[in-house]
Amino acid sequence: MSLKTFERILRSFDLKHQFPGHIHLHTIDLHTCGEPLRVLTKGGPKFTSDSVLGKRREMRDQHDWIRQALMYEPRGHADMYGCLLTAPDRPDSDFGVIFMHNEGYSTMCGHAIIALAKLAEELDWKDSASKGQALRIDAPCGQVESIMSAESDPEFLYSFQGVPSFVLETDQLLNVPGYGRISFDIAFGGAFYAYVDADHIDLKLSKHNAANINRLGKLIKSIIKQQGTKITHPYEADLSFLYGVIFYSRKVHMASDYRNVCVFADGEIDRSPTGSGFCGMLALLSHKNDLPRGKSLIIESIIGSRFSGHVKNRLSYAGFSAIIPIVSGSAYITGRHQFLIDPKDPMKNGFLLR
Fold first, then answer.
1. Catalytic residue chosen out of the listed positions 33, 83, 109, 262
2. Is 83 a residue of the active site?
3. What per-residue confidence (pLDDT) applies to 14?
4. b/e burial code for range 39-59 (CB count within 10 A of at least 16 → b)
5. Which of 5, 86, 96, 187 is found 20 to 30 A from 212 (Cα to Cα)?
6. E strands along 218-354, which residues?
7. 144, 111, 108: which is closest to 38 by C-alpha?
8. pTM for this one?
9. Distances (CA, A) of 57 to 99, 106, 132, 228, 238
10. Level-2 CATH architecture, domain 20-157+333-341
């Protein structure tokens, strides 16, 4: 190879070439406690709906190729997670958000809210007069607030206030091949989760056991659906589905109160302690009188990363005894990307391989 050719190669990498004929999708990637978040910053669709839930439906029904292209291989992977920002629903909100993953579109994501707080700080989304004030975000489940935490510990630097969280069912039973009868509870923390005590079924919540945890979580979710357990949100039909299964244990590896592992969507394992799942767990522990008033909890994930959380207040919500949760964690930016989609590429929408 001549030097002249090599110089041309180096010049070609300055990205002045715009790859005409390709679709361009721009993102900023972050992680919260190890769980990825890919934020679509340019190239998203124009919505006609005025609500985040309506835009979520539009995204699912008309623009799902964007989710597939960003979440699936070769640009993503089976455990990828992402979001895109929209105009807000409410006059006092700053923006709206649509969450996406390997199966579709979730209704709430705590780790994403924490990551967006980090991004807001880095990119100066608030003007100087508003810095330090809460970001009000219209999520599909309702308005959530994200703020810089009062914690000085960098592990818990960003906090969010969740939506009213409540317990739907307790002490439900199902028969699981290889495990017999398993008890579970269902709680809502922005999405509905089934909670299973891993210590009662001798399930080790270690990353070395991730494959078994994933299989069991998917199986339990499938059986709950098959046996017809009714999961209904009191106000929104779009929120009325089981999103994931959370296994929790008191056998912790660090100075934490619990370890939990969430299996959600189509067999994704959350690397973080699951923000919305933590909200539901705070509601569940409060409901069972296992959480003293005023006590903060620390929950660790399958990889040992941690969230802290507490109950801000209690209220009645559509006949349920509910709580308003606060969850704190930290996030980091990992990259800025310009993805290209060639319309002639037979794999332009991606694929999943496990």
1. 109
2. no
3. 75
4. bbbebbeebeeeebbbbbbbb
5. 187
6. 242-249, 258-264, 268-269, 297-300, 306-317, 320-329, 331-341
7. 111
8. 0.95
9. 12, 11, 33, 24, 9
10. Roll (3.10)
Say which residue the tokens 């290889």 belong to.
178
Question: Hey, what are 186's tokens?
Answer: 């269902």
- With beta carbons less than 8 A apart as the criterion, state whether 184 and 194 touch: yes
Calpha distance 161→150 (Å, rounded): 13
Q: How far is CA 194 from each of CA 73, 157, 302, rounded to the nearest angstrom?
A: 29, 28, 17
Please write the tens of the pLDDT for every residue from 217-256: 999 999 999 999 999 999 999 999 999 999 999 999 889 9
Q: Distance between CA atoms of 275 and 30, rounded to whole angstroms?
A: 16
User: Comparing 20-157+333-341 with 166-329, is the CATH topology the same?
Assistant: yes
| H-run or E-run covering 86 | strand 82-86
The second-level CATH assignment, the architecture, of 166-329 is Roll (3.10)
Q: Using DSSP, state whether 274 is helix, strand or coil.
A: coil
Per residue in 38-81, pLDDT (tens digit) is 999 999 999 999 999 999 999 999 999 999 999 999 999 999 99
The DSSP string of 132-169 is TSPEEEEETTEEEEEEE-S--SGGG-EEEE---BEEEE
Domain boundaries, the chain: 20-157+333-341, 166-329
Consecutive H or E run containing 36: strand 35-42
The first and second tokens of residue 24, run together, are: 């361009």
